[in-house]
Amino acid sequence: MHMAKFTLGCEPVVGSLTPSKKRDYKVTNRLQEGKRPLYAVVFNFIDARYFNVFATVGGNRVTVYQCLEGGVIAVLQSYIDDDKDESFYTVSWACNKDGMPLVVAGGINGIIRIIDAGTEKIHKSFVGHGDSINEIRTQPLRPSLIVSASKDESVRLWNVETGICVLIFAGAGGHRNEVLSVDFHPSDMYRIASCGMDNTVKIWSMKEFWTYVEKSFTWTDLPSKFPTKYVQFPVFIASVHSNYVDCNRWLGDFVLSKSVDNEIVLWEPKMKDQSPGEGSVDILQKYPVPECDIWFIKFSCDFHYTAAAIGNREGKIYVWELQSSPPVLTARLSHAQSKSPIRQTAVSFDGSTILSCCEDGTIWRWDDVASS
Question: How far is residue 213 from each of residues 63, 185, 290, measured CA to CA in Å?
């Protein structure tokens, strides 16, 4: 990952809210999926055949769509959970060893549903979390590994291939309140970052436990018999924010995180090798996002992490160029009919399409005029 050279030990560089007009996006579609709020939208970056396919969740429904030319959005599949009181909060793409695409969803019931995208049937269900699931992410290098962040104050690592809960990140050094977001490091297989309502971001290492991860692929006994291990201590704890931290993503070895104070922050964890869990944080850059002061609003990036898109409580989207210093606001997207809080955005592989899913049950599609 080629990162801009950030000067360290200085004041963080704050981006200007004057759009650069580097990209010109126009609304090409708006869908009303239903009455219930949509909490998540995500493109499939796991499989090059399906880069234009995305999934949404809202209420007890998981829907798979395809972005076609000319702003067209086609419905491919729809899964409706048997429990009408289920409310899905998060969705991710994974696959089994044969490369079959799987949609992974979780929410208020604390059950992870692995849905076969080809048949709309439940492939597996994972029970283990003691409370609702706020985010699920997939390991890009081994897309049959997923992590889930829960209200039960834990993060769990699962193998979708074998149905095993491999590791539980919780305990003495764990989160002290709901975990709201989790992310795999892009190149270091062993590392994850999680954040939540205890206002911290914690970095965890699976290195000492990796034999269990490998064992989870060859396990033939019942998944419940697997020797699931607790990872009790993170390698680093960061107090970057003074309120709930509801989204964190790795940018190379740096971390992007946001709270409820109208900005995304880019920072570097500076670990002390002698004393795990301790160290300092260098705050590198700040990307302002006006009216982004309610919790459970998540940003998203294109495949190469060149841009981040984030919605706000007023239905506007801010698109930031991530790897320039000072940060550059690529575009500010607003539409007279888009007034509802945007819970999540999804940026397509190359950044040419941006989707948003809203509290009022709508999905909006914005396309880069130049590339369409």
Answer: 30, 16, 41
Q: Which two tokens stand for residue 37?
A: 């709020």
Q: How many residues does the chain have?
A: 372
Enter the pTM of the model.
0.95
Secondary structure (DSSP) of 198-257: TS-EEEEE-GGGHHHHHHHHH--S-GGGS--EEE---SEEE---SS---EEEEETTEEEE
pLDDT in tens, 217-248: 999 999 999 999 999 999 999 999 999 999 99
According to DSSP, the residues that pair with 149 across neighbouring strands are 135, 155
Distance CA(181)–CA(241), nearest Å, equals 14
Q: What is the DSSP letter of 209?
A: G
CATH numbers and ranges of domains, the chain: 16-127+296-371 (2.130.10.10), 130-280 (2.130.10.10)
Q: Which residues pair with 40 in a beta bridge?
A: 57
d(CA 342, CA 122): 28
Rounded distance, CA 268 to CA 24, Å? 31
pLDDT digits (tens, 9 = 90+) for 137-192: 999 999 999 999 999 999 999 999 999 999 999 999 999 999 999 999 999 999 99
Cβ(145)–Cβ(126) below 8 Å:
no
What is the rounded radius of gyration, in angstroms, for the C-alpha atoms of the chain? Answer: 19
Strand order in the sheet with 236-238: 179-184, 191-196, 201-205, 236-238
The pLDDT score that the predictor gives to residue 328 is 96
